[in-house]
Amino acid sequence: MFFLYSTVGLSQTDRTVGLRLGFDVSRLSLYYFQPERKALEVSSDMEVIKNLYPTIELGWNNIKLKQDSLFNCYSNGYYVRLGVDHNFLKPENKNGREMFIGGIRYGYSFFSDYAQNIIIKDSYWGDFNGGIPKSSLSAQWLELVVGFRTELFKNLFLGWTLRGRLLLAKSKDDETGPYWIPGFGKGNTKTGIGFNYSIFYSIPLYKAKFK
Amino acid sequence: MKSKIFILLFILVEFLFSCKEPPCEQKTDSFLQIGFYTLNKKTVVLTSDTVSNIYGIGEVGKSLYGGDTIVSTILIPLSQNQNTCSFVIKSRNGVVDVWDTLSVFYTHKPQLISKECGFATIFNINSVKVSKNEFDSIKVVNSAINTANEENIRIFLY
């Protein structure tokens, strides 16, 4: 892996700088594998300094969990991740279209959840039958990102990222934690992993010389 | 280029097949766990009690433990519809039955474990009280009662 870090000594390079817009297609697969969950995520990045790509990711997550005669549970919320990626690959051509990236993100999520018709069986004292009122919650976390991105056709990219997440804070009024934190994952743990598989289109903006 | 596409698709397929939630393999019952102890020269020693009967007040006919069972720890359920539960603990001291009453004051809330496991109730003990016939004292060592079922209360015998 260390050869990937060896970008020192490259000669001055002309590259087309573009605003890259991404859509996470892995979220669409959730409709099939987790029909109770709907999610969307879009992203944007641009090379402003040689091999450095400030990045913004925006997403939405909606969960409707239903188990007949046991519970109905709802969660809905949005998130934003801000960070920067570094491309460790030497450009194969003047546009540097192959990327092996490592990056960091700060994530913030605001969401609400509630539950209805909860039944918890108890053969001794009697079943619990109730709900959880709607509450507005938030959470913050950090992510480390690694991934790969390649240009399939001119300005059209495909790539994946693998993410390790560390929860920094979540709403204190919720002692046991929400079931799901949009953009982070399960709310009962302080760490998590994530995966994105995105398609990107890069809007060419201008030529730049990166030293 | 083809190899890159293959790698990208391979990872996608791997990801898709890892998306399914496993079936419920977690405990979903939260019990109050009580340990019986003695103080031996200021050293806390786990001991045992001979329990003839334990039942919740209001549930006289429904015994949780019985038949002179020798126990070091017991697991008993708290009501999810109240914030107080009291139990009668009948111990066998030699040939004599000794009756005590344990009261537990708590808050509780349902927590979603997973779609497959459903909800479990999480309790938090505010205070406890016990009569002192067979028992000397009582101490809360862990106020959180959850599906991990760890020791919550220590009852010290004379």
Beginning-to-end CA distance, first to last residue of chain B: 79 Å
Strand content of chain B: over 45%
The CATH class label of chain A is Mainly Beta
Strand order of the largest sheet of chain B: 4-3-6-7-8-10
Mean pLDDT of chain A: 86
Q: Which structural class fits the helix and strand makeup of chain B?
A: mainly beta
**Most extensive protein-chain contact, per-chain counts:** A-B, 34 and 34 residues
Tell me the Rg of chain B in angstroms. Answer: 23 Å
| Number of extended strands of chain B | 11
Number of domains of chain A: 1
Give, in order, the helices and strands of chain A: EHEEEEEEEEE
Q: How many H/I helices of chain A?
A: 1
CATH topology of chain A: Porin
How many individual β-strands of chain A? 10
Low-confidence stretches of chain B: none
Radius of gyration of chain A: 21 Å
So what's the oligomer here?
heterodimer
User: Biggest β-sheet of chain B: count, sense, barrel?
Assistant: 6 strands, antiparallel
Estimate percent helicity of chain A: under 10%
What are the secondary-structure elements of chain B, in order, as H or E? Answer: HEEEEEEEEEEE
- The percent range for strand residues of chain A is over 45%
Brief overview, please?
By secondary structure, chain A is mainly beta. Chain A has one helix at residues 26-33; strands spanning 13-24, 37-45, 52-67, 71-87, 99-120, 128-153, 156-170, 180-181, 185-186, 191-210. In chain A, the strands form two sheets. An eight-stranded antiparallel β-barrel of chain A has the order 1-2-3-4-5-6-7-10. A two-stranded antiparallel ribbon of chain A has the order 8-9.
Structure characteristics:
heterodimer; A: 211 residues; mainly beta; Porin; 8-stranded antiparallel barrel; two-stranded antiparallel sheet; 67% strand; B: 158 residues; 6-stranded antiparallel sheet; 5-stranded mixed sheet; 1 helix; 11 strands
